[in-house]
Amino acid sequence: MKQEDLGLVRSDFTDLVPSQQALVTSVARAKPESELPYSLIKGYLNSAQQKALITESVTYPFTRPEVCVYGSQHPIPRSQVWFADKGCDYVYSGLFIHALPWPKYAYKLRQKLAREFGLNSNGVLVNRYADGHESMGWHSDDEKEIEAGSDIASVTLGASRDFFLRHKKTQQKISLCLDSGDLLIMHWPMQADWEHSLPKRLKVTEPRLNLTFRRLIVGFHQTP
Ligand SMILES: O=C(O)CCC(=O)C(=O)O
Ligand SMILES: [Fe+2]
């Protein structure tokens, strides 16, 4: 029997349970009153939604490209893949990455974020951290092809990990714990003023997936 026949998929990415609706409303209201450059929606995805995405990710064509650090080449300390609409190739960490076609559940999550938050993304970068030895250093998602005014939505699946924010001028630091199913929305223009990182956590033995939904300027790189 297919998952659709079990009723799992039909409702999973269309409806929110009432408690989540309440939470989303309060987050939406909290934003203008708060000085925080982000919204954190704990438990945004239910366990069936998380499971559908984690299972799907087994088929994702992850790669571990090499980047130049202080003059020598090193593989990035995680694996990644970029799914996006046509015309949305991306230069990320100095690497050119072609847009691959959207998988089913990643696309459903894109639609859910659009319905519930007006998030008009056209690409998702999926990072896979095999365990707590894998990480992401300080950076901002401020590439030239990111469309001005667009928020970036980050969804965590699998292992819980700490996530740091650091203000570029004041050095103010915020530490969040991102658990499976959580949604972090980094509001425009957060990337101009803040950096973020995912530090190593050597006690973590389980893998973590992170999907960041972004809006790129279509055709920015003009590839055939
Ligand atoms: O894994 C995370 O939570 C962060 C990912 C991230 O910052 C990025 O993909 O640019
Ligand atoms: Fe980032």
Low-confidence stretches at least 5 residues in length (pLDDT < 50)?
1-11, 15-33
Helix content: 10-25%
Q: Give the domain tally.
A: 1
The SSE string, one letter per element, is: HHEHEEEEEHEEEEEEHEE
Q: What is the fourth-level CATH superfamily?
A: Alpha-ketoglutarate-dependent dioxygenase AlkB-like
Structural class: alpha+beta
Query: What is the CATH T-level topology?
Result: Jelly Rolls
Oligomer: single chain
Q: Give the strand content.
A: 25-35%
Task: Give the number of helices.
Answer: 5
User: Which ligands does the model contain, each kind named once?
Assistant: 2-oxoglutaric acid, fe (ii) ion
Q: Which architecture would the CATH scheme give at its second level?
A: Sandwich
* Global Rg: 17 Å
CATH class: Mainly Beta
Structure description:
Residues 1-11 and 15-33 have low confidence and may be disordered. The strands form four sheets. A six-stranded antiparallel β-sheet has the order 1-12-9-14-7-4. Helix content is 22%, strand content 32%. The chain has 224 residues and is of the alpha+beta class. The chain has helices at residues 8-12, 18-33, 47-57, 104-117, 190-193; strands at residues 38-41, 66-69, 72-75, 79-84, 90-92, 95-97, 123-129, 136-139, 152-158, 161-167, 173-178, 183-186, 194-198, 208-214. It is globular. The chain has a single domain, classed as Jelly Rolls (Sandwich), CATH 2.60.120. It is built from five helices and 14 strands. Fe (ii) ion is lined by residues 139, 141, 196.
